[in-house]
Each structure stands twice: as structure tokens, then as C-alpha cells.
């Protein structure tokens, strides 16, 4: 399969990029797509999640690999990115949520697609705008936005208007996916076991469309 580098990133914390990265890895694997994940976040949340699960269920075969990537060593980072570009399949990279690490530019430059989780509160919208500008200055990656952890119950008319306006603006620079609603089932992700039906029902509309794009 043709190699694709797909990053999950945004400078705003709490938008669920690690959770979506893990769920999408499982979704790809369950659909027969070769996939590996790279945890480049300083917190190493995805990698540590996998380690905790394997400590409890050592006999369960992992459906996809998780490797750590240290972005502090620019020389090593360049070498690893060259290796990842040769992987026959999709490489998902969970990126740090900041713009201070200049070495991240090596990841951004090699990304084919950037998946950017968002919510519609003003702080996240503003931060996402800053991130888009910075990303586009160094990368030609296709931008995909996932409205995530969205409360889908009826909102005030002004909130709905602002939400529609945000979606319209994001659509000018990338593709906006169907909403992933707020759900305990989605937050309760696993890196070892198949997606639960409840999880699949929530994420599949967005994930299916992403697969078509990448």
C-alpha cells in the first residue's frame, strides 16, 4: 500500500487528538488497512496507555504498533521521518500540542494529511486559527477538521450561528468532517481491543470520509 503520513495535531489541549488517533488506528486496522502509530507528544499518553493495557493483558496481540518519537534530537528526528516515509501503509503521528518545538517542522513538512480536532468554543477556534497559519507556512498537508466532543443537544441560536460560521471558514482551507459527539464510550478508548459498537456508530461517519480522502 502507498505510504501516507497522517498527523493528529492542534495547539489547543483537550480537543481529543490522542483519543481520535487511537480510535482511527483501530478503525483502519479493522478495515484491513496497514497502520502504525507514532507518539511524538511529550506526555506520551498514547504509548503509556498501550503499556498499561499490555501490563494487564499481556497475552492479547496488539492490532497496531505504537512507537515513541523524541522530537528533541533533530538529527534523529530527520532520520526517523525518512524511515517512516518508506512504511507501506498509513503512519499516524500524535503530535505535541504546541508551536514552540521548532523540530516539529520536520514532521509537518512530511505530512500528507493533518487531522485537526476542534471544538466550537472561542478559545479553541482562535487557537486553531493560529495553528492553521503556522502549519500552512511549512506544510502542504491536506487539512481535515473533526468537530470532536460536541454536545449535540439543541443550542442557543447565536451559538448555532457561530458554529455554522466556523465550519464555513474552516471549509475554505480544508475539509470539515461530520461531528463526533460527546460520549463516555468514545473517551473510553482501547489500543488492544476492537471498537465497541457504540464507539463505531459515533466515529464511523467521520472516519469513513477521512479514509476516502487519504
From TrEMBL:
InterPro entries: CobQ/CobB/MinD/ParA_Nub-bd_dom, DNA_Partitioning_ATPase, P-loop_NTPase. Residues 7-105 form the CobQ/CobB/MinD/ParA nucleotide binding domain. This is ParA family protein. It comes from Butyricimonas hominis.
Amino acid at each position: 500500500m502507498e505510504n501516507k503520513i497522517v498527523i493528529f495535531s492542534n495547539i489547543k489541549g483537550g480537543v481529543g487528538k490522542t483519543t481520535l488517533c487511537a480510535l482511527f488506528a483501530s478503525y483502519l486496522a479493522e478495515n484491513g488497512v496497514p497502520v502504525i502509530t507514532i507518539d511524538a507528544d511529550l506526555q506520551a499518553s498514547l504509548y503509556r496507555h498501550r503499556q498499561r493495557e499490555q501490563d494487564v493483558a499481556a497475552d492479547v496481540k496488539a492490532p497496531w504498533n505504537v512507537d515513541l518519537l523524541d522530537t528533541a534530537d533533530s538529527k534523529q528526528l530527520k532520520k526517523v521521518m525518512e524511515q517512516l516515509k518508506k512504511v507501506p501503509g498509513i503512519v499516524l503521528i500524535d503530535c505535541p500540542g504546541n508551536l514552540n518545538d521548532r523540530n516539529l517542522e520536520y514532521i509537518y513538512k512530511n505530512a500528507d494529511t493533518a487531522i485537526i480536532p476542534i471544538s466550537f468554543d472561542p478559545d479553541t477556534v482562535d487557537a486553531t486559527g493560529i495553528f492553521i497559519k503556522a502549519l500552512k507556512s511549512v506544510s502542504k498537508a491536506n487539512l481535515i477538521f473533526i468537530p470532536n466532543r460536541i454536545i449535540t443537544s439543541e443550542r442557543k441560536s447565536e451559538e448555532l450561528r457561530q458554529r455554522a460560521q466556523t465550519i464555513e471558514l474552516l471549509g475554505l482551507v480544508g475539509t470539515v468532517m461530520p461531528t463526533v459527539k460527546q460520549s463516555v464510550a468514545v473517551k473510553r478508548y482501547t489500543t488492544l481491543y476492537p471498537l465497541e459498537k457504540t464507539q463505531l456508530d459515533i466515529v464511523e461517519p467521520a472516519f469513513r470520509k477521512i479514509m476516502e480522502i487519504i
